[in-house]
Design goal:
The protein is elongated, with a radius of gyration of 39 Å. By secondary structure, the protein is of the alpha+beta class. A hairpin with a 2-residue loop joins β3 and β4. Strands 6, 7, 8, 9 and 14 form a 5-stranded mixed β-sheet that branches. The chain contains 20 helices and 25 strands. The longest helix has about 45 residues. Helix content is about 30%, strand content about 25%. InterPro entries: Beta-lactam/transpept, Beta-lactam/transpept-like, MecA_N, NTF2-like_dom_sf, PBP_dimer, PBP_dimer_sf, PCN-bd_Tpept.
Length: about 675
Amino acid sequence: MSENRRSRNEKPAKKPKRFVWLALPAALLVLGGGYYGYTVYQNRQEEAAAKKVLNSFIDAISDQKYSDLSALLTEESLESNGFTADEVSAKYEAIFTGIGAESFKASGIEVTPDDKDSDQFNFQYNGSLTTSLGELTELSYSGTITLNDDQAKIDWSPQLIFPGMEGQDKISISVDNATRGEILDRNNEPLAENGTLYQLGVIPGQLGTGDEKTANIKAIAERFDLTEDAIDQALAQSWVQDELFVPLKIIEPTDEMPTGTSLKETTGRTYPLGEAAAQLIGYLGNVTAEDIEKDETLASNGQIGRSGLEAAFDKELRGENGGKIAITDEDGAEKSVLLEKERADGKDIQLTIDAQAQKTAFDALQNQAGSTVVTEPKTGDLLVLASSPSYDPNKMTQGISQEDYDAYEQNEDLPFISRFATAYAPGSTFKTITAAIGLENGTIAPTQSIAIDGLKWQKDSSWGDYFVTRVSDVASVNLKDALVYSDNIYMAQQTLAMGEDAFRNGLSKLIFGETLDLPIAMNPAQISNEDSFNSEILLADTGYGQGELLLNPIQQAAAYSVFANQGKLVYPRLLKETEQKDKEVFKAETIEQINQDLTAVVSDANGTAHSLAALNIPLAAKTGTAEIKEKQDEKGQENSFLFAFDSQDQGFLMVSMLEDRQDNQSATGLAPDLLTYLAEHY
């Protein structure tokens, strides 16, 4: 009994084996967790490698670096499809170049492990690209990526070029080019047309080899104002073969053709008036990748309007090419169509411009910096929009040499700018408007004379050393005298007499601050930089067409249309289809009074436009000179203006400007040929 008691009080002996078996599952758990973590890590690394090779594959296509593809493809897939790596690269190059592929983009990229093969991943993505026929979308790509020695490569097949391709399939393209619409004048004479051009090219096989080839290329470069590098680059294009015609540039037909050259007739854009209408009509340029980014409907091998109306109406003029891109078998039999599009020719644009008047106006400017605008004032039709000096839009479209382009760029008279849309202080031609406002508000009495002493005047000593100056020392001046002699002092005094509020109220009835409905870039006409003159001097200067007043020649012609329309302002229009628009500004009797004085500017022997009387044309006119200078006592740049219109039938109205006129030059002196033409035809 005591023995049993002792055994109950003693602690039981330890059993090591029990504790060993209890600890073993925990050890296995630790080992298993490490193996699982390694597997997850390895899987992630493999997936990252698969994604990387797919992105590299897509980037090579997008960047058109097809030679980079060879390192990304498994040898087994190439062999099973009957291609070498170089042949795959060449096939991509030929197909994508042939269809004018640009801007390849991939979206919805997915890479997932293959459930059946741990060494493979499946991928898919959607592709899109722009071709010479437009955008090709909804291309669904899929395939596999194989891992071998921790390196991922794509299992290539032809369906990775375009879905549906297999074996030795090819891609065919047929293009039905849209005809670009023409730009026509009011008489249907072409201002931009599709004419016959002559394409200079070379036949590589006829150039010879070695030194002979080098000599022939040099002779071609010298004869046609090309560089040898440019010819070499043309010959290095992937599609070039010995017997194929490789185009170089558009030239005039010639009998002097060096060895290896050839001429081909082609259709292209031509501009019959050349320099005479360049800023208005503009020119074309080849479509770039940047253009396609902005408008994916553009064809990669097409042309787009770069300036002028060619740019403003590019979409309407361009139309849309038609054609078909299809998958064919190796014998050329069509299997499926990737893209098919019906051709839509461009629309013709008819202008109000008179081509002959445009040419006459441009020639009259004699390559000096200036512009001429002519309207048919009763309708607002713009007959002439000429700017000088100019450039040749045919060269710009067909291929201009660097030497010729540099000459334009370095010309200080800026031939690329449209002076008819460039704002200037209008000078004394604007006195006509000031006079009309003064007559309307009663501050100007037409027969009342003002005594003026000398050639300069200031209101009082508060003007400091500033004076208004005039050219003719006439002691007593009324409205007619002020317009005939172009008297700045009279107009300055009358503007001060009416005051800023009345003057601005009269000006506000014109077109200041308005955006004209014209496809020409220009800023609205302005009265002053601020809403108020804040200066009597600035108010006085504005009254005779200077100060901060700014109107371009088109806006001047629009404002001055009131004198040919009994006080009605007719808005300018450039397209025949545009609706005519006008508004009443001045009373008919006000305009009649001023027009009598404007005819005297021509007929009176003292008139500033009296030289035009010799033309024996019924004219009303006003000349102007706007001086730009830093200080009052120095001689500044002088811009010469002429505003003239048909005083009998109001058939035409012109505003001409000569920028920085030199001694013995004026817009009036250059006008006779144009005025004679207008009088005969309008």
